[in-house]
Amino acid sequence: MKHQYIDRETGLPITENLVHDRVIAAIYSGIRENARFLFDLLVSPRASALVGFLNYDFRFKKPPLDPDRFFRTHGIDLREIEGRLEDLTSLRKVFERRIRFREVRPMPETPGSVVSPADSKMLAGSFSREKSLWVKEKFFNFMELLGGDKPEWLKAFDKGDWAVFRLTPEKYHYNHVPAAGRVIDFYGIDGCFHSCNPGAVVREVTPYSKNRRVVTLIDTDVDGGEGIGLVAMVEVGALMIGQIVQCYSGRGYEDPVGVSPGLFLKKGQPKSLFRPGSSTTILIFQRDRIKFSRDILGNLHRKDVQSRFTSGFGRPLVETDVRVRSIIGQRLKNNGDNGEV
Fold first, then answer.
1. CA 73 to CA 64: how far, in whole Å?
2. Largest alpha-carbon pair distance within the chain?
3. CB 218 within 8 A of CB 224
4. Vertex 236, ends 87 and 146: CA angle to 5°?
């Protein structure tokens, strides 16, 4: 079955060319069902690192004769890149590229807004059965995702809302801060490296909460903050993602620092870098603090789009392609305010 998403600018369905789709399908069907030991080995940290090395770390044998054609084939816009093209000597360097984000991903100056943390395909949902966004927890187990030894955060986000941002290999691989605020907790959770391919997600129950991940808790109800309560930002490792590098910078990419409690994060600034491959970032919001953008909500349940998530989860569920630093939600002024943007 093909997989489609919605182009946010045009509103049209786009058929995604899923990288290594047949290989992923074989791993998550026949191997997963008939050779569990081999399946567990393939999604282990060591195997993921090896596959990543073989795919991304060999130098190009020679510079492409036609750079425009090479980068166009990989879906990369030459005009966005910061720095010299001749320095991009391997696929790893291509996928860890920097972009002139202030120019090519301008951020609207809208107080109380939430912006996309990545160039990615987005789904939104809710933990509350009372909301039309409610989706059974097949993407992740809420308690496992944030860590079972963190009851204070499980309580804080009870019946809140969530958004999943799926990066694909050709995308810009930096995560940016979705909302201004101060870090109040930061920790890593060990795990394996499941693929983020939609077919794999449908076949493997709650894969995101089984993968290695990094959790950042941001308090936005502080001076200079966005005023949307607590926000959990969960960066999820995946197949070929051997490392999530924390490299927050308050100005461009300059003077990057690690993330730790007490650090103030400016909205829209670079926060972390996924080593190449595909991966996922998840945002979790407290109940009745934000409303997702109207177009994203409208796309979720479109019936004219062939989505593997629709097929696997039994209800229309369609991703929207969003750009990093674009608005994906807005602060609710008062409980009950629809707050649509």
1. 12
2. 60
3. no
4. 150
| CB-count exposure of residue 303 (10 Å: 0-12, 13-18, 19+) | exposed
The one-letter amino acid code at 296 reads I
pTM confidence score: 0.84
Q: SS3 of 94, please?
A: helix
Task: Classify residue 31 by its DSSP letter.
Answer: I
Q: How many CA atoms lie within 13 A of 28 on its CB side?
A: 22
Rounded to the nearest 5 degrees, what angle is found at the Cα of 42, between the Cα atoms of 39 and 57?
A: 165
- Give, for all 341 residues of the chain, the pLDDT tens digit: 788 999 999 999 999 875 554 544 444 454 444 444 444 544 455 544 545 444 554 455 455 445 566 677 777 888 899 998 888 877 778 888 999 999 999 999 999 999 999 999 999 999 987 787 777 666 788 888 898 788 999 999 999 999 999 998 788 999 999 999 999 999 998 866 556 555 555 555 566 767 788 999 999 999 999 999 999 999 988 765 557 899 999 999 999 999 999 999 999 999 999 977 668 899 999 999 999 999 999 999 999 999 988 866 778 899 999 999 999 999 997 644 444 44
